[in-house]
Amino acid sequence: MKFFIDTANLNDIREANDLGILDGVTTNPSLMAKEGITGQNNILKHYVDICNIVDGPVSAEVIATDFEGMIREGETLAELHKNIVVKIPMIPEGIKAIKYFSSKGIRTNCTLIFSAGQALLAAKAGASYVSPFVGRLDDVSTNGLDLIQQIRVIYDNYGFETEILAASIRHPMHIIQCAEIGSDVMTGPLSAILALAKHPLTDNGLAQFLADHAKGNKSPQ
Ligand code: E4P
């Protein structure tokens, strides 16, 4: 399973990238605003900064909600860097835009997916990635992982090449369960990725090893 980080914070992106396990980045307008990145020029520059850190797909979301606007914005984003994937919302105009970009060989990530029907439409339009929001479904008492499973079955039934990008990942168990189901990609915060490495028995065991080593290697008096 590929690991993407879901943030526009350059320090977090660098830290995840330095681990050597990062495959890509997803952003959204809320994440950009959270970092204080505003104004068209700053936003475009920030995407390039991210692309210069990570050698992998970087999702950059359009703001327009009409077909022509999405095409204009998406083409500008795609020209920024070879790593850019144009992120398009799951609305009827978005489906048309995904179809258009797919015919031009421009990669897309269809975002705000909350049902299997939406995922099916995105795949038929030729989306490169589809982003079901696991955590936001959990927030409304609906099992987000059930949706990942449903989409996996549908895509496998018909051999769709669209990759399932489990989004809105909140904690390490989400990541593990997505891997069990066979999600192609997950995107989550640095905290969820780092939490995978944590285990108290690892910490205790390491402390013991180091203490025993120190006992046997005391410097001569
Ligand atoms: C998807 O690409 C979104 O950026 C993201 O995963 C949303 O996550 P959230 O529900 O934690 O805001």
Automatic annotation (TrEMBL):
<keyword id="KW-0704">Schiff base</keyword>
<keyword id="KW-0570">Pentose shunt</keyword>
<dbReference type="InterPro" id="IPR013785">
    <property type="entry name" value="Aldolase_TIM"/>
</dbReference>
<dbReference type="Pfam" id="PF00923">
    <property type="entry name" value="TAL_FSA"/>
</dbReference>
<dbReference type="GO" id="GO:0006098">
    <property type="term" value="P:pentose-phosphate shunt"/>
</dbReference>
<dbReference type="InterPro" id="IPR001585">
    <property type="entry name" value="TAL/FSA"/>
</dbReference>
<dbReference type="GO" id="GO:0042182">
    <property type="term" value="P:ketone catabolic process"/>
</dbReference>
<dbReference type="GO" id="GO:0004801">
    <property type="term" value="F:transaldolase activity"/>
</dbReference>
<dbReference type="InterPro" id="IPR033919">
    <property type="entry name" value="TSA/FSA_arc/bac"/>
</dbReference>
<dbReference type="GO" id="GO:0016832">
    <property type="term" value="F:aldehyde-lyase activity"/>
</dbReference>
<dbReference type="InterPro" id="IPR004731">
    <property type="entry name" value="Transaldolase_3B/F6P_aldolase"/>
</dbReference>
<dbReference type="InterPro" id="IPR022999">
    <property type="entry name" value="Transaldolase_3B"/>
</dbReference>
<feature type="active site" description="Schiff-base intermediate with substrate">
    <location>
        <position position="87"/>
    </location>
</feature>
<keyword id="KW-0808">Transferase</keyword>
<protein>
    <recommendedName>
        <fullName>Probable transaldolase</fullName>
        <ecNumber>2.2.1.2</ecNumber>
    </recommendedName>
</protein>
<comment type="pathway">
    <text>Carbohydrate degradation; pentose phosphate pathway; D-glyceraldehyde 3-phosphate and beta-D-fructose 6-phosphate from D-ribose 5-phosphate and D-xylulose 5-phosphate (non-oxidative stage): step 2/3.</text>
</comment>
<comment type="similarity">
    <text>Belongs to the transaldolase family. Type 3B subfamily.</text>
</comment>
<comment type="function">
    <text>Transaldolase is important for the balance of metabolites in the pentose-phosphate pathway.</text>
</comment>
<dbReference type="GO" id="GO:0005975">
    <property type="term" value="P:carbohydrate metabolic process"/>
</dbReference>
<dbReference type="GO" id="GO:0005737">
    <property type="term" value="C:cytoplasm"/>
</dbReference>
<keyword id="KW-0963">Cytoplasm</keyword>
<dbReference type="InterPro" id="IPR018225">
    <property type="entry name" value="Transaldolase_AS"/>
</dbReference>
